[in-house]
Amino acid sequence: MKQYYVYILANAWRTLYTGVTNDLQRRVREHEAGAVPGFTSRYGLKRLVYYEVTNDVRAAIAREKQIKGWVRRRRWR
Prior knowledge:
By secondary structure, the protein is of the alpha+beta class. The protein has one domain (4-75): GIY-YIG endonuclease, CATH 3.40.1440. Helix content is 40%, strand content 27%. The chain has helices at 24-33, 39-42, 57-69, 72-75, and strands spanning 4-10, 16-21, 47-54. The chain has a three-stranded antiparallel β-sheet with strand order 2-1-3. The longest helix has 13 residues, at 57-69. It is globular. It starts with a strand and ends with a helix. The relative contact order is 0.28.
């Protein structure tokens, strides 16, 4: 059974990025190496600060959208 991860990355300035993947270790390594072009590499988002696991990709995507809709203060709790 596949697992899907909703994850949050941060940098030293507390900039946040929320994403979904089916291989958390690989994805974090990609972020750490700067291999993911765009927002995460531009802002140096390399530190995994939170993740959740689910077996349902639709639930993972819905959770990602829910987290992205929160205000910053709530995400840091």
